[in-house]
Amino acid sequence: MSASKLLTYSFVKTLPDRTSWLRKLRNRHGFTTRMFVRSMCSSVEPRHVVISGGGMVGTAMACSLGFNPMFEGKSITLLEAAPKKKFELSEMYKNRVSTVNLSTVSLFNSFGAWDKVLQMRCQPVKRMQIWESCSDSFLTFNQPDLSDELAFVVENDVLLEALRTKLEEVSERVEVLYETKATKIELPEPSTDSALKSLVSITLNNGKVLHTNLLIGADGSNSVVRKSCNFPSVKWDYNQAGVVATLSLSEPTENNVAWQRFLPSGPIAILPLSKKESSLVWSTSHEHAKELVSMDADTFVDAVNNALVEVVL
Ligand SMILES: Cc1cc2nc3c(=O)[nH]c(=O)nc-3n(C[C@H](O)[C@H](O)[C@H](O)COP(=O)(O)OP(=O)(O)OC[C@H]3O[C@@H](n4cnc5c(N)ncnc54)[C@H](O)[C@@H]3O)c2cc1C
């Protein structure tokens, strides 16, 4: 082993703080090399599971594994690129919402997160009505017992907060690293004698390298995991934009029906949030979307009402 490698190794052992280590190395010897930084920052303690992406999907996965007795004693790390956000349930509803079906409710119930959602807010959907602008035909979805829920409309932030609150209860098993991004993934080498090379290696934005038996990619539509592993994907452009908004209803109603109408330019959906508010998701052409967002409130409301009743062939 060369003198410089030995030098690095002794610094690793005695100077855990990376910045001071680099500064001292520079001051004393006037050099650093990528190799030193890499070996300095490598974590040699492999994780059983690493989940890349702490959105709704990654955090739900972390809860699912964290609360699963079969994962007792396993180390799970959740990487989230964004900083940890402080959650406050604002009076005004957020306009990013999800309609979740009963399978999702049952998943959340399996580790106690649905109660957290109920303690915040969500709105039951008992019927979905889908129709189109060019005919009188329509489809209705409901449970055999009409009073049973079909789905729930929940703000994305509420879902995430419920999951994050539950995750704190298993913090000894699930470590969450905020502002930490996977930047490079190296898959295991098929036939290797090296224990570390038989694991997935994940380089983080802070220079650290994690090793794991199982990497789960939940890092969104531009997934680094998908790209690094060359997973094939298919995508196509609908040439549409989505306009989202929170609508105030003219008068309170039971508001438990999800409406969706197909127009030639795309579907408009109105999803119940409360007795007096609904969420709008309107997929339309880019030009029309630009027009919609630049309208004053009254013109916008007229546009929404027309889109629900106008006959368009
Ligand atoms: C208008 C609209 C309405 C929708 N309505 C519904 C609905 O009603 N029901 C429904 O089920 N779905 C709905 N969807 C889809 C749903 O929102 C998405 O499928 C869902 O948000 C995907 O969640 P995710 O956790 O996989 O990804 P994301 O929400 O994109 O989260 C990815 C996370 O990974 C982090 N990240 C990214 N890169 C890295 C990295 N390299 N390292 C570490 N972290 C990283 C990001 O910071 C982010 O927090 C809707 C989508 C839209 C746009």
From TrEMBL:
InterPro entries membership: FAD-bd, FAD/NAD-bd_sf, UbiH/COQ6, UbiH/COQ6_monooxygenase
Alphabetically ordered keywords of this record: FAD, Flavoprotein, Membrane, Mitochondrion, Mitochondrion inner membrane, Monooxygenase, Oxidoreductase, Transit peptide, Ubiquinone, Ubiquinone biosynthesis
Pfam families recorded: FAD_binding_3
Similarity comment: Belongs to the UbiH/COQ6 family.
Protein name per its UniProtKB record: Ubiquinone biosynthesis monooxygenase COQ6, mitochondrial
Alphabetized GO MF terms: FAD binding; monooxygenase activity; oxidoreductase activity, acting on paired donors, with incorporation or reduction of molecular oxygen
Origin: domain of life: Eukaryota
Any one GO CC term of the record: mitochondrion
Parts forming coiled coils: none
Domain FAD-binding: 49-303
Cofactor(s) required, per the database record: FAD
GO biological process, one term: ubiquinone biosynthetic process
